Amino acid sequence: MRSFMRQAAFAAFAGLAAGAATAADNVRIAFIDPLSGPFASTGTNGLHQFEFAAEKLVNEKGGVLGGRKFEIVPFDNKISPKESLIQLQVAIDQGIRYIAQGNSSGVANALTEAIEKHNKRNPDKRVLFLNYSAVDPALTNDKCNFWHFRFDANADIKMDALTDVIKQSDAIKKVYVIGQDYSFGKAVAAAAQRFLAEKRPDIEIVGNELHPIGKVKDFTPYARKIIASGADAVITGNWGADMLGLGKAIIEAGFKGPIYTYYAAADGITAAFGESGKGILRLVSEGQLNPPPSDRVVEYARAFKEKYPDGNLSQTRIANVIEMLARAIEQAGSAEDVVAVGKALEGMEHDSLWGGKLFMRPQDHQLIQDVHILVHTNEGVTFDFDNSGYGLVVESTVKMASMDAPTTCKMKRP
């Protein structure tokens, strides 16, 4: 009897040890984004997309390096650069070597600077920064470094594509530019001024202002100024609650022209606009859900919706992050040697799940890809957002946008 009990206890211990060993072998990716506060819905949905992509695109296919699984570890940064740096250190102390972040370029600027300093001081504990959504152009220009890789098109690339569309519209004579008062909002405004002046010097910018991020409760005063300006179109980089508040105020004030945005979709935004935003809201982005470019997209999107019935597959670039990282780790032959992984990512060409080619430009670590102009509608929508019946449909596409755009990046490699 005692022998049996000893054998059972040993078996149980062995099972626990095996489980612990398996967990220890996971390739962990720290997800540092808002999981509480006014932008919690955006961060939570992004977390779900990372978890799903890791499971569907890597783990279900056997993992990397002979069976190691991807594990997404969430850290709530409360959209604060200071809190993000605290969470970064916690992640590093836990042995995590990959950092994913996207909400707020202010946070991204703080992280990339801290990571560069950390990697210089701790060559045996280096980490890579997988920037999936922070689009301040400076991050792949003057503030570039080897450890930072951006998988989204930056603000300048998106504005270049967006103004290619605007320049073709003779109906647009006046444009109002408005955004959040931080690095990204300022970058959008600067890019709008520059590209409109180059492509349509006859267009008058009748307003160019910034507002406090996450603090405006009533955007009605801003909407009134936009209407009074006589603007034919609005350009904004607002996201989250600020995008919803601004857009609703503009439309309710009677604006009928196009509102060109970077992030006017999902996380409750699509449902809240509904019919009122149809044909008015437009979004410049990468990735394509409607119409689905392939059966693989249909399968992936349906599986995501089955797992997260209230979720939105709104950041298609996340799948690109996971697939390209897995390829780089396999090519490097190690998940711990982040220098080798980084060098494998440099210059990588990849067929995107969403259609089209991806190219990680080696000189600045900016991913080059197709950029689409999408329209908010309920027509031709295979996959909607917020279970609303409304979604985004491709209106036009700029292939491999800004492939030859110059960069001021002077990267020092390890």
Automatic annotation (TrEMBL):
Which InterPro entries does the UniProt entry name for this protein? BCAA_transport, Leu-bd, Peripla_BP_I
Signal peptide start and end residues: 1-23
What CDD domains does its record include?
PBP1_SBP-like
Entry keyword Cytoplasm: no
What's an example Gene Ontology biological process for this entry? amino acid transport
Which superkingdom, per the lineage? Bacteria
- Where the record annotates domain Leucine-binding protein, the positions are 27-373
Q: Which UniProt keywords apply?
A: Amino-acid transport, Signal, Transport
Alphabetized PANTHER family for the sequence: LEUCINE-SPECIFIC-BINDING PROTEIN, PERIPLASMIC BINDING PROTEIN OF ABC TRANSPORTER FOR NATURAL AMINO ACIDS
State the family it belongs to: Belongs to the leucine-binding protein family.
Protein name per Swiss-Prot or TrEMBL: Branched-chain amino acid transport system substrate-binding protein
